[in-house]
Design goal:
The chain is an alpha/beta fold. The strands form 7 sheets. It has a 7-stranded parallel beta sheet, sandwiched between helices. Helix 10 (about 230-250) runs antiparallel to helix 12. About 50% of the residues are buried. The model is unreliable at about 345-350, about 360-365 and about 805-810 (pLDDT under 50).
Length: about 800
């Protein structure tokens, strides 16, 4: 067969064919550019050129043409293995070559084997090697024929030898730089295994994105045109400076306004600092969103950074912060909001028609790869980019390189993810030339744990003085031996409104919020309910309505879960907070007297007797620790500088929390009697060795990580959630289009809009909706979109699990 006879893809719209040689070389080129960012151009390029080597087989060429020629009865998707040959070629020809590191061939081969699924375990929990099994599989892949065709039509032996040597030298240099200051043999082994795992993940990310970008460019007949980001940074900075001048003119002429300006200038002054990990501990209400942006825009220009990525704890605050930045920078086309995934991925289902598979491919390539200048996303999405194992998440990872990451409310990192979060930040700083800014008024002291990070500098000068100057509230303990019940709390709220126009009540559970709402809803003042049962568009509308009420000084109460604590720019006259961690209490206090409207306002902390925290151990332990600190400060008013929200108090709090949860920090897997940290970064010990066994050969694997096992157990939050599209506002139109099977021209636009009208449900609520017949399932190829019926949505509470929304409306 001639070169022109070997094809990689057939375009669905017009039947045009993409030559296999063209696809491999184009993916190689894209992957090389990605790898160049961390000095591994030929390492990632090697994965790109070999990933579809198996498509040179007769079986694959027959399969792809048959699939197009017979759409009504196509061959089974995945029936021809085209992703083993490239890795097998590397392992057989270079695994035992002295000048080539075994780490290189194993890392690249695993990425190639896995580019249509998940990275394989090098060693699994039984001491076996799925990686080796794949390599030595008896499955017929026509390897001698495929190899011969590749070397004839793609690159010859001499080119391949030279290219692999270049890749090996890159990796050798990479490891030498990492080991310069490591002094012990155990330390060397630990660094090598840790870096190898991250390099494998990076190669995987580079290959997946390069492959999908090229496939999409061919399918959609579009050219990939990079944006001129450096000129954008300069323009954006000019817009930001103009906006800050206007804000200063319109702000209250008080000490808080002066301090906000000074802290913003501190950030600008520190922007010349080198790539690193910085803290920005601006007190709540100090303007950290724009102050951190000011640092980032100048830092990006001085250090040629490619992206600015805001990472926030909850989807609730993405819309507000993204819209503010979009308006300030006049950057409508350059700011991406990336929330949770609306669709359920079932990508491993191979029993699809060719048409269904093509739809799935379009959805896959449409998903956001973060290839824009400014991104707003969540902590969940950030951590899943490293540790979910899913290609749709991990393809974005390489775009974190040479970027600036701004972590808003960084104390929200889940306890069991602390070590994994720290290692990700270390890799990004030390390997990917990425600067991270840890923003919060309540720094979580991540430098104090075992697997820690090194903080390079605090961006705000004279921090203790600033924290004390931002004191706008008086925090009063209302803790009782037996706690408060809902009825007693209701009475206290009503009393609090006698002398005030508004009160914010923050509770730890949705049930407690709803119970208090039911207790107060017939009072002679308005009661607003806020929870994660509402979609982002619904919450946004509620918050905007409350801002108007606050401006008009209307009398009302807002009852909310902790979602309102992080990043929601709103200011109440009084806050009542259920006992929780000191960081949560500080965040709650930040919603009171936010702009220093008066000298001091009241924040009350009480213990709720009817809150069930058995499934919320972090909140429970945090509350107990806060109780002790408040008691100590009561007994000794000079302790912690005499202020509950001081840096000393927060350091003491987090130190206590991390000691209490020390066994949880590495993401323990009790059933497997190990941790995800150990599975990904295990050392080369006798009990961990795995061997490739074949005729006349037996030699150990260099890499030992259990990628697939680790990733299959990883969840950022303890309970898995599922996105459900709800019939609220424009969500009703989206649902109508889905159910009516209307054609969707742009999946990316559709998915982005759908995020605004979807709710993430814990599994028990999701199952309850299904049991109560309140869900509709719409299938697109390999993807399911779950849609809530009208009876499952309520204007006060959002999702109604029991499907009683219409009945509730009648009662109200």
């Amino acid at each position: 067969m001639a070169v022109k006879d070997f094809i990689a893809h057939i375009r669905t719209s017009d039947g045009a064919e993409q030559l296999l040689v063209d696809h491999l070389k184009e993916v190689q080129y894209i992957a090389e550019n990605i790898g160049q960012k961390i000095g591994l151009k030929h390492v990632t390029g090697l994965a790109g050129m070999l990933h579809d080597m198996g498509k040179f087989s007769e079986a694959f060429q027959e399969y792809i043409r048959d699939a197009v020629a017979n759409p009504s009865d196509p061959p089974k998707r995945g029936s021809v293995d085209h992703s083993t040959a490239g890795g097998k070629f590397l392992m057989e020809h270079f695994q035992q070559v002295n000048s080539v590191s075994p780490f290189l061939v194993e890392c690249v081969s695993n990425a190639i084997f896995s580019h249509h699924g998940q990275l394989l375990d090098m060693v699994d929990m039984d001491g076996k090697s799925p990686f080796v099994n794949r390599l030595t599989s008896e499955k017929n892949i026509d390897f001698p024929q495929v190899k011969q065709r590749f070397l004839q039509n793609m690159y010859d032996v001499s080119y391949m030898n030279n290219y692999v040597i270049k890749a090996a030298k890159e990796l050798e240099t990479f490891f030498c730089n990492k080991l310069k200051n490591v002094k012990t043999a155990e330390g060397v082994a630990g660094v090598i295994q840790k870096e190898t795992s991250f390099v494998t993940i990076f190669i995987f990310s580079a290959l997946i994105d390069a492959d999908r970008r090229n496939s999409r460019a061919f399918e959609e007949q579009e050219k990939i045109t990079p944006f001129d980001v450096q000129s954008l940074w300069k323009t954006f900075e000019e817009h930001l400076n103009n906006d800050l001048i206007e804000k200063q003119k319109n702000s209250l002429p008080n000490e808080i306004t002066r301090l906000r300006k000074q802290m913003s200038l501190d950030c600008l002054d520190k922007a010349s600092r080198p790539t690193g990990i910085y803290t920005l501990s601006i007190p709540t209400g100090g303007g950290k969103t724009l102050a951190s942006l000011r640092f980032a825009l100048r830092h990006a220009q001085l250090h040629q950074k490619q992206r600015i990525i805001y990472i926030v704890p909850y989807t609730t605050i993405i819309e507000q912060n993204a819209q503010e930045v979009r308006e300030v920078l006049q950057a409508e086309d350059y700011v991406l909001e990336h929330h949770s995934n609306v669709i359920e991925d079932t990508e491993h289902n191979e029993n699809l028609s060719f048409k269904e598979y093509q739809v799935s491919r379009r959805l896959n390539t449409a998903k956001d790869d973060w290839d824009v200048p400014i991104i707003f996303t969540t902590m969940v999405q950030f951590l899943e980019t490293f540790y979910s194992g899913k290609s749709r998440n991990m393809r974005r990872l390489h775009n974190l390189a040479n970027s600036i990451l701004i972590f808003d409310e960084v104390q929200s990192v889940p306890i069991h993810c602390v070590s994994l979060f720290n290692e990700a930040l270390n890799f990004l700083k030390n390997t990917c030339n990425t600067t991270s800014i840890l923003c919060t008024a309540t720094q979580p002291a991540l430098q104090l744990v075992r697997n820690n990070i090194k903080i390079d500098e605090e961006l705000v000068e004279d921090l203790p003085t600033n924290i004390q100057a931002f004191k706008r509230t008086s925090i009063t303990s209302l803790l009782k031996n037996k706690g408060w019940n809902t009825e007693g709390l209701s009475g206290f709220v009503e009393e609090s409104l006698i002398q005030r126009n508004n009160v914010l009540v923050i509770l730890n559970t949705k049930k407690a919020v709803r119970d208090l709402y039911e207790q107060l809803k017939y009072a002679d003042f308005e009661v607003v309910h806020l929870s994660t049962g509402m979609c982002p568009a619904h919450r946004k509308k509620k918050i905007e309505e409350m801002r108007q009420k606050l401006h008009r000084k209307e009398k009302f109460v807002c009852i909310s879960t902790q979602l309102i604590e992080a990043g929601v720019d709103i200011s109440f006259e009084c806050v009542i907070r259920s006992l929780a961690g000191l960081d949560s209490i500080a965040q709650a206090a930040g919603r009171c007297n936010r702009n220093g409207e008066v000298e001091i306002q009241d924040v009350y902390v009480f213990n709720h007797a009817e809150e069930s925290l058995s499934k919320l151990p972090t909140i429970k332990m945090g509350g107990e620790c806060s109780r002790y600190i408040m008691k100590d400060l009561q007994d000794n008013p000079a302790l912690f500088g005499g202020y509950l929200m001081s840096t000393e108090a927060m350091m003491h709090y987090f130190n206590h929390i991390y000691r209490a949860f020390d066994s949880k920090l590495n993401y323990p897997l009790s059933k497997l009697k190990t941790t995800i940290y150990e599975l990904l970064f295990r050392l080369d010990t006798d009990e961990n060795k795995a061997y490739i066994k074949g005729p006349g050969k037996q030699y150990p694997l260099a890499t030992l990580a259990s990628y697939k096992t680790a990733f299959s157990h990883f969840e950022v939050i303890d309970a898995k959630t599922q996105g459900v599209l709800v019939p609220y506002g424009e969500g009703k139109d989206l649902i109508s289009r889905l159910i009516g099977c209307e054609p969707i021209d742009d999946y990316q636009v559709f998915l982005k809009k759908a995020q605004q009208y979807s709710v993430n449900l814990f599994q028990h609520d999701f199952e309850a909706l299904k049991k109560n017949n309140q869900l509709i399932v719409v299938q697109f190829g390999t993807f399911n979109i779950y849609v809530a019926k009208e009876t499952a949505h309520d204007d006060q509470f959002g999702i109604s699990v029991q499907g009683e929304a219409q009945l509730d409306d009648c009662i109200i």
